[in-house]
Specification:
heterodimer, A: mainly beta, 4-stranded antiparallel β-sheet, 50% strand, B: mainly beta
Chain lengths: 114, 116
């Protein structure tokens, strides 16, 4: 089944404790992206990647890191989480050639930073 | 910078009736894509319908259709014969054809309530 997976789905952590949210897609998509969703704000892009080893900042990159060492994986790293990073996080992927211009989303990760 | 506005935080409709969700956007570009996504309580983002700006014909997917008014920068979603399973948050999103980062710009969402 073609899908985007994220782990963990739920995470409660404390301020300053490094964490990684994993994202993996099995559709051989070149493009991957991370968004955060906050009430009343819709989704905002954190980082994106056009292909392996090619990443760039979105609108809200502060406090986050990413890497793209393999085409299928795009982990989101919070080196020192803070309470303002409490949010719902989505990973998405999209083919850059052919396709339907549709971004496919993972199931979301609910992160709480205490 | 592009912006997307959904002016209805919440809408309700009787089951089997028709409801229209509003979306306006601001852009100086002529080529772009517009999307409606559905987010049920499961939180999964599900694409409902898409529209290419160069196409004059309004997109339709079964009970879902859009009214795309390019000059007015309006992109409303009409849901016909509303069903209980349509209850969800609905998000309007914009994507530039020119901007190479493929970023989706999102509205704040409209919560749709279906009354049985």
């Amino acid at each position: 089944e073609a899908q985007v997976t994220q782990n963990p789905r739920y995470l409660i952590t404390v301020t300053g404790k490094k964490l990684t949210v994993t994202c993996s897609q099995n559709m051989n998509h070149e493009y991957m992206s991370w968004y955060r969703q906050d009430p009343g704000l819709g989704l905002r892009q954190i980082y994106y990647s056009m292909n392996v080893e090619v990443t760039d900042k979105g609108d809200v990159p502060e406090g986050y890191k990413v890497s793209r060492k393999e085409k299928r994986n795009f982990p989101l790293i919070l080196e020192s989480p803070s309470p303002n990073q409490t949010s719902l996080y989505f990973c998405a992927s999209q083919p850059l050639s052919g396709g339907t211009n549709e971004q496919f989303f993972g199931p979301g990760t609910r992160l709480t930073v205490l | 910078a592009q912006t997307v506005t959904q002016s209805q935080p919440e809408m309700s409709v009787q089951e089997a009736e028709t409801v229209t969700l509003s979306c306006t956007y601001d852009t100086s570009e002529s080529d772009y894509y517009l999307f409606w996504y559905k987010q049920p309580p499961s939180r999964q983002m599900i694409l409902v319908i898409r529209q290419e700006a160069y196409k004059q014909q309004n997109a339709t997917e079964n009970r879902f259709s859009v009214n795309f008014q390019k000059a007015a920068k309006s992109f409303s979603l009409k849901i016909s014969d509303s069903q209980l399973g349509d209850a969800a948050m609905y998000f309007c999103a914009y994507r530039s054809e020119i901007n190479s980062n493929y970023q989706l710009i999102w509205g704040a969402g409209t919560k749709l309530i279906i009354k049985p």
